Amino acid sequence: MSKFKRTLITTALPYANGPIHIGHLAGVYVPADIYARYLRLKNEDVIMIGGSDEHGVPITLKAKNEGITPQDVVDRFHGIIKDSFEKFGISFDVYSRTSSPVHHETASEFFKKLYDEGKFVEKTSEQYYDEANNQFLADRYIIGTCPKCSFEKAYGDQCESCGTSLSPTELINPTSTISGNQPVLKETTHWYLPLDQYEPWLKEWILEGHKEWKTNVYGQCKSWIDSGLMPRAVTRDLDWGVPVPVEGVEGKVLYVWFDAPIGYISATKELTEDWETYWKDPETRMLHFIGKDNIVFHCIIFPSMLKAEGTFNLPENVPANEFLNLENDKISTSRNWAVWLHEYLEEFPGKEDVLKYVLTANAPETKDNDFTWKDFQNRNNNELVAVLGNFVNRALVLTQKYYEGEVPARGELTDHDKETLAEIANIKGEVEKSIDSFRIRESLKNAMDLARLGNKYLADEEPWKVIKTDAERVKTVMNICLQITANLTICLEPFLPFSMDKLRGFLNLEKMDWVKLGETDLLPTGHKVNKPELLFEKIEDSVIEAQLQKLADTKKANEMAEAKATPAKENIEFDDFVKMDVRAGTVIECEKVAKTKKLLKLKIDTGIDQRTVVSGIAEYYQPEELIGKQVSILVNLAPKKLRGIESQGMILCAENADGTLSIVSPDKTVKNGSEIR
Asked: Residue 153 sits in which domain range?
């Protein structure tokens, strides 16, 4: 790292078609933020770039479904995303958006340079076209039957049932989602980045030159390169995006995969006039923090773009993470199976660092991992509260009790004291070694070892007992405990910034640089510390149960949405149907049937008579809410005794997919006895 004077950190641009969830945070933004904060503490020149990806088909689909414009969609979600990041403490130096004028200009200039220099290949091919709407169809605007698993609603680029990557022409019975018609194939011209021409260079640059990359990143790159690279379209037929800057071309935009990474460059332009220093000076190190779904784009495609352009730096490292699942199920925006950041911030005020801690401690660095609310609770209660919070609280409470908040003088040191103080510097070295190698999860564990060291030291020395026999010795013990506490404010600052700010308030201490970590006199004798509060608080079972119930409700809603109606029964003759005499009637009395859970006894005015009906709807209706309600009643059903009560008819109900019942009622009040046909 010594050959670099500065570091440029980029973070994957989230699609502005939905909020941020914990999968995004664990995969990209929390590790990037930790690393950036660490470098800033070391007084290194570092900038962290972020922004919303506001082009592409997911945006247009969202707009179409909601009956609004794509700009309306991105304006709404860019605001939600940006606000959530700020409140959560992701320390971007700039958070931009790809719909900005600066980005459109930058992306256009980038394309035009490659176009003018003949770096693209022009190809004419047949693509699906919707004749009713006079437009070419993006892959996601085409659905059909998957040729692999026969799922009837597979998209033109992927089957979400079996996960197979597809091309639109592979679909069986393709249909336009815009008009519902079958599309036709029509010729269209596009420009392609000839990745096959960069294959020899990529082999040397990645496979030979970057063997230090994480195994999951290196392995995916090797698999792609070994399989042979193909030219990739950089333009598409769409009306939302950066227009292709070529005369005579209308209705074409830059493909979102091409324009999105250029967003890192345009965002840096917005941040500083000195943007070229961060992008073109060879003494700048560029790091891409991304999830595994973006590895190919950031390790193969974007570097090939930069290589073709010729004046930009290439990434030095791409520390990509794998995916985070939620309660043993894949996080899904479309199924609402996620923990949304903006909702978490509302439901867990002041607990930003708890989520950061859990996501880091359980980070999916080399394989997919799972977030569970029970693990969230356990890590908070057993680690943040019982280890870190417990040590800090004991150290500060005893200082208030014994010395009225003043740091006592250190006396002669025992071997145990010397070993403990030396271990602070050792822990610093372990944290640095891990974080410099992008093993962020390991670095957090190493940093927490400092709190464990403090707890062990306190437990070994037992100052609350020694104070009775050797008050001078306790001064040394408490001084060392306070020095460990002060060191914690540096060591854990990248990981728990809100909590360490709070702890510095307890210690009456200014923020210190990383170089100070390991020093054993951060708090001078006589320094006054403030009365402490709890650094973390326990999370009760009821809080976790509420979150689990929220997910259970989501799962039930998904099952309901995906449920199919039962097949129609065998046909009957009209004469069979007219035998049924269904009338509108009004409930005039209603009560539960004793010793049953499901039965209600109703008295119904049918317009013909007043009769008793026993119905199994007690789980879905209270007796009082049915009195005065009009219902549909089959009046010529043979009477039947239920729990000793003669039931003279049947109330018509609709049975939902989950088995719940809803009474079928006229939408307007009608005369009792009116026939229902």
From this structure: 121-192
DSSP 3-state assignment of 626?
A: helix
159 known ligand binder = yes
pLDDT per position as a tens digit, 252-288:
999 999 999 999 999 999 999 999 999 999 999 999 9
Is the domain of 86 the same as that of 34?
A: yes
Residue 557 has pLDDT above 70, yes or no: yes
Residues present in the chain in total: 677
Tell me: is residue 333 an annotated ligand-binding position. yes
Is 149 a known ligand-binding residue?
A: yes
**pLDDT tens, position by position, 341-363:** 999 999 999 999 999 999 999 99
Distance, in Å, from the CA atom of 36 to the CA atom of 370, rounded to the nearest integer, reads 25
Final residue of a domain: which of 149, 166, 192?
Answer: 192
Helix (H, G, I), strand (E, B) or coil at 460: helix
517 and 416 within one domain: yes
Q: How confident is the model at residue 224 (pLDDT cuts 50, 70, 90)?
A: very high
Q: Does 481 show up as a binding residue in the annotation?
A: no
The pTM of the whole model exceeds 0.85: yes
Euclidean distance between CA atoms 631 and 605, whole angstroms:
10
Q: What is the CATH number of the domain that holds 512?
A: 1.10.730.10
* Helices assigned H by DSSP within 404-540: 415-436, 440-461, 463-466, 471-491, 497-507
- Alpha-carbon span 579 to 450, nearest angstrom: 82
Q: What's the start-to-end Cα distance of the chain, in Å?
A: 82
